[in-house]
Amino acid sequence: MDIQILYKSGLIIVILLLSLVIAMYATLAERKIAGFFQDRLGPNRAGIFGLLQPVADGVKLFFKEEFMPATADKFLYVLGPSLTMLIALLGSAVIPWGNTLVIGNNVFPLQVADVNIGVLYVFAVTSIGVYGIMIGGWSSNNKYALMGAVRAASQMISYELAMGMALIAIVMMSGSLSLHDIVAQQHGIHWNVWYQPIGFFVFVICAFAETNRTPFDLPECDSELIGGYHTEYSSMKLGFYLFSEYINMFISSAMIASLYFGGYNFPFLHELGMSHNWLTIVGTFVLFAKIGFFMFLFMWVRWTLPRFRYDQLMRFGWKVLLPLAIVNIVATGVIYELFKK
Amino acid sequence: METISVTSDYIPILIQIVVALSFVVVVMLVSHFIITKRRRVRSIKKEDNFECGIEIEGNARFPFSVKYFLIAILFVLFDVEVIFFYPWAVNFKESGWSGLLYMLLFVALFMFGFYYIYKKGSFDWNKDEE
Amino acid sequence: MFQVYLFLFLSCVALFSAMMVLLSKKPIHSVLYLTLTFFALAGHYILLNAQFLAVVHVIVYAGAIMVLFLFTVMLLNLNKEGQFPKTTLVKIIAAIAGGLLFVVLIGSLKSFDLATVSNPAVSQIGLVKNLGKTLFSQYLLPFELSSILFLSAMVGAVMLGKKDKE
To answer: Chain C contact for B68, CB < 8 A?
Structure first.
């Protein structure tokens, strides 16, 4: 038992560090991709290919002067970004990063916590993600920040519903809320995306809205709200807000990959003739390749699509995605009952 | 399939919360007390809220559109409905047609309410000023 | 043993934040302390192995209802002082109402049978699968009726939104 707890603690630290590093390099990748899409170079001065750029950005944020508006609510002003970062770091707990490693008599699952309610845990973490943005926007006592915060909250809660509905269809297929079971059932090429194309579509769009990414970046749209909810933030507090967006993107990509694209599974897994541990390691790399693809998708969409208008956003969320997700549930139920053996 | 789930499954999550919390607290403290503290220059004008460079008019404690509240109330209702789906979805494969029909009845009433809200125009954000 | 410490810690957090809900000067702080109370209660549910209830508690109370509260508090025009009258009469009425609630709680606690499951941490009744089975057999009718309750709540919400416009 003790060795397991020690192992889990190590795994948690490794995964948290990994998500921080991936988020750091996602900022660089985003700027490089933006450069590519706009036919320019992107950052290339710090280090080879600009590889030290994220480090430089981090150091810059650390050494920036700390600013706090005189009329701000001091405690909540600090609480807002801290909460956003904390919640962003909690999401990775239930995602299975790979199968198990067997060393001697000990079995080490590459998952922090295989809880019975894994899917709902992610749903819960998403649903409390609203707080950091709302607290930050309200406490800085700035009109733009308040508008950004209220928009963000409304948008996130609206798209959360459709996301929850899309997840239900997955749960119906798998009969379990544990992410480990859901991934394990998608062995070979039996990925959920073939059985749940509508659910996948709804889930991806909601993931974009939950992470406040373009085309859903109205909370921080710089052309009308300056910086949205983080208008008044500087130094590491701003850094937390910007950074948690990339961590959320990473977690969302990992969720999409595990729920719909088989997680660490890949076709012809067992025909390679490798030992169990090697298969696990290859599976983990496959999972990270899938995550990388979805993170690229996030960036691709950002530099391709324009921003929604607010009424379009709300109309799309409530009038299109929500009914679509409900129809998907009913259709899944009826089709399953009709065609089961 | 029937594995036993116990409270101790959650110990790793507890550890993760502690690790994440300590990361956030340490970074905040280091950035506040060690690095940026010395550099903070304060003045009344500087610590005003940003308002595109013009004089500040009032503050950000004003009421905003009631539409946002309506969305929040509807969200609470729909969220509870979504939660009701989960225990059903987990048992879906065993319950057969009868389970599906029970849920269809629930969904039908749910969709009726949705249709009512739809018709009343609560989701139309650009039509409230007539 | 570890669970006992955790229980004590969570209870302290719950009691402290519940006290702070009442003692905070700013309404928005009260709302946030109430959210913290809900998280502590969710921790208690986990200790009782009521996993589904714990996560639903977080999703519905902390994630939905408290967001609504936060919206409401933000709508209040907090520039004006003395929006909430604190006359002696109000205080006396509040004390009587609160006292009655206290008596009811004590009464219900006295009739409560403490001989429950010996080790709640391994009881499987709170898992989502077992809960679903019970909900869709024993409590099917209340479940279907709850949808009518939702319907009326939706109508009420829409009416509330309409009324404010005039």
So the answer is: yes
The model's confidence at residue B37, banded by pLDDT at 50, 70 and 90, is: low
Indicate the domain borders of chain B. Answer: 6-119
Domain spans of chain C? 1-80, 127-166
Nearest-CB residue to A146 (from B41, B60, B91):
B60
Q: Which of A161-175, C108-122, C151-165 has the highest mean pLDDT?
A: A161-175
Measured between CB atoms, which of A115, A131, A157 is closest to C51?
Answer: A115
Do residues C37 and C21 make contact, with C-beta atoms less than 8 angstroms apart? yes
Whether residue C164 has pLDDT greater than 60:
no
Chain B, nearest residue to A69 by Cα: B47
pLDDT of residue B1: 38
Asked if the C-beta of C76 comes within 8 angstroms of chain A's C-beta atoms, the answer is: no
Residue A288 domain flag: yes
Chain C residues in contact with B90 (beta carbon < 8 A): 128-129, 132
Q: Do B106 and C148 touch (CB under 8 A)?
A: no
Distance from CA of A324 to the nearest CA of B (A): 12
Identify the domain containing residue A307 by its residue range. Answer: 68-339
Determine which of B5, B18, B24 to mutate to test the interface with A (most A C-beta atoms within 10 Å).
B24
Q: Answer whether 0.80 is exceeded by the pTM.
A: yes
Q: How many domains does chain A have?
A: 1
Contact A278, A102 (CB under 8 A): no
Model confidence at B130, pLDDT cuts 50, 70, 90, reads: very low
Q: Which residue has the tokens 């996948």?
A: A200
Give CA–CA dist A320/A158, Å, rounded: 12
pLDDT one-digit tens code per residue, B82-123: 888 888 888 888 877 888 888 888 888 888 888 888 887 777
Best probe of the C interface among A82, A83, A120, by most C CBs < 10 A, is A120
- Does domain C1-80 fall under CATH 3.30.390.10? My reply is no
HSE-up of C59 (CA within 13 Å, CB side)? 27
**Which residues does chain B have within 8 Å of residue A5's beta carbon, measured at their own beta carbons?**
11-12, 15
C118 versus A59: the higher-pLDDT residue is A59
**A123-147 pLDDT tens trace:** 888 888 888 888 888 888 877 888 8
Of B27, B50, B68, the CB nearest to A236: B27
- In chain C, what residues touch A123 (CB-CB under 8 Å)? 55, 59
Environment class of C62 (CB within 10 Å of its CB; exposed 0-12, middle 13-18, buried 19+): buried
> Which positions in chain B touch A315 (Cβ < 8 Å)?
123-125
Q: What ipTM was estimated for this complex?
A: 0.82
Mean pLDDT of C78-100: 76
What integer is the mean pLDDT of A77-87?
89
| Cross-chain Cβ contact C147/B110 below 8 Å | yes
Confidence tier at C118 by pLDDT (50, 70, 90): low
A275-282 contacts, C-beta under 8 A, 24 or more apart: A276/A99, A276/A100, A276/A102, A277/A101, A277/A102, A277/A103, A279/A99, A280/A98, A280/A99, A280/A100, A280/A101, A280/A110, A281/A98
Q: Look at residue A328 and tell me if it is in a domain.
A: yes
If one compares A265 and C38, the residue with the highest pLDDT of the two is C38
CATH code of B6-119, in short, is: 1.20.58.1610
Q: What whole-number distance in Å separates Cα of residue A229 and Cα of residue A232?
A: 8
